[in-house]
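As a warm-up, study this chain.
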Amino acid sequence: MMKNLIIEETQFTPRVSFNVNNQQFTISGESCLMHPDDFYEPIVTWLTSYLETNTAPVTFCFQLDYFNMLSAHEFLKIFSLLEEHAKLNPKVRVTWLFQDDSGFLDDGVVFKKSFSTLPFEATKVTC
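Now compare it with the structure written out below.
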């Protein structure tokens, strides 16, 4: 069994919490990197390995306060992996959390349209 992947948030990187015990995978905070592939490549590699052997339901949550377009490209890689996995394991769910006054709902809608076969919901955060 793989170990959890936990990366604490920094000024420019999000918190990553991939919990294999409860199948809750979360990316939260801010992702404002000039070279996001350096940060996300090990995450994508870990996720690829995990999904190759996983048969349990997976819930993937994005709760970002801010991200730049370079980071959005990395999210596309993650969504692509999840969409491929969902073809074999339909119990994959993605939740895109957004706050009322942000443009993040629009971003979530764009991602959802790009991955139309991936179970994807945008949910307003009320805090």
